[in-house]
Amino acid sequence: MRRPMVAGNWKMHGTRASVAELIKGLSDQALPSGVDVAVFPPSLFITQVIEGLEGKSIATGAQNSAVEPQQGALTGEVAPSQLVDAGCELVLIGHSERRQILGEQDSTLILKFAAAQACGLKPVFCVGETLEEREAGKTLEVVGRQLDSIIGQLGIKAFADAIIAYEPVWAIGTGLTATPQQAQDVHKAIREQLAAQDAEVAQNTRLLYGGSVKAANAAELFGMPDIDGGLIGGASLNADEFGAICRAAGN
Ligand code: 13P
To answer: Which domain of life, per UniProt (predicted)?
Structure first.
């Protein structure tokens, strides 16, 4: 059985004061024991979050990590080994905002994925199509290609210790959520793509949905057979809302 997971991507939000408030709000939540909960603060706040959530069963991840596993001369980047040293367990790789705004290419993401795993950091690999691609009927082709870029270079076993997040670009921060069936269709295709190479990896890999998830629509999305939880943006900045989404994953 795959354990459900709810992860909050805080993106480029927060100040020391607002992060302290969010930590307090999260600490007060009754979180379901059967759900893995994680937050991804800006790297500046990772230490504050890890210290503030000590003793709570909430994992911390980074939103990005370097192409090289170990520390060295790479200005502005944070090495996966440094994130592990700080207490991080997870890292987002290939979020569409980084692909689109910063121009991160598949070739870079492969290096980041491998570097993270080399240090024991679990990648949450993000895939998803734009509205234009969906309207052109290319959703599965685009998502399939994004996944294949990793499988082709690192092998299917790379996903034995990783998580996949399907985030349709048109649903991110727009209030437009994929319907549960639209999301399920893509998740099913992703699982079939994994299964074509390794049935066990396909069975065990968690597939999260992201894109305007909130407490009001979470249960319906998480009720679909191939949706194992969510990657939450805006709604994760509100501790009560995020707590409610976590509880929806536990039901
Ligand atoms: P929203 O939940 O704000 O749509 O963001 C989703 C997302 O990009 C999470 O990584």
So the answer is: Bacteria
Q: Pick the atom of ligand 1 nearest to 172's CA.
A: 4
With bands split at pLDDT 50, 70 and 90, how would you rate the model's confidence at 73?
very high
Ligand 1: residue of 231, 237, 245 to mutate (most ligand atoms within 8 A of CB) is: 231
| Choice from 164, 213, 221 to test ligand 1 binding pocket (greatest atom count within 8 A of CB) | 213
Does residue 220 have an active-site annotation? no
**Residue 209 burial by Cβ neighbours in a 10 Å radius (0-12, 13-18, 19+):** buried
> What gap in Å lies between CA 56 and CA 50, rounded to an integer?
10
What tokens were used for 50? 């890890």
In the 8-state DSSP scheme, what is residue 166? E
Mean pLDDT across the chain: 97
Work out the pLDDT band at 107, boundaries 50, 70, 90: very high
Note down the domain range covering 65: 5-250
Which of 133, 231, 123, 105 lies closest to 177 in space, CA to CA?
Answer: 231
Q: What is the number of domains present in the chain? A: 1
Rounded to whole angstroms, what are the CA distances from 122 to 48, 81, 245, 248?
A: 21, 12, 22, 24
Nearest 5°: phi and psi at 78?
Answer: -120, 130
Residue 127's DSSP bridge partners are 166
Q: How far is CA 4 from CA 13, 159, 204, 221, in A?
A: 25, 16, 11, 12
* pTM higher than 0.90: yes
Q: What is the mean pLDDT of residues 183-206?
A: 98
- The three-state secondary structure class of 27 is helix
Please report, for the domain that includes residue 45, its CATH number.
3.20.20.70
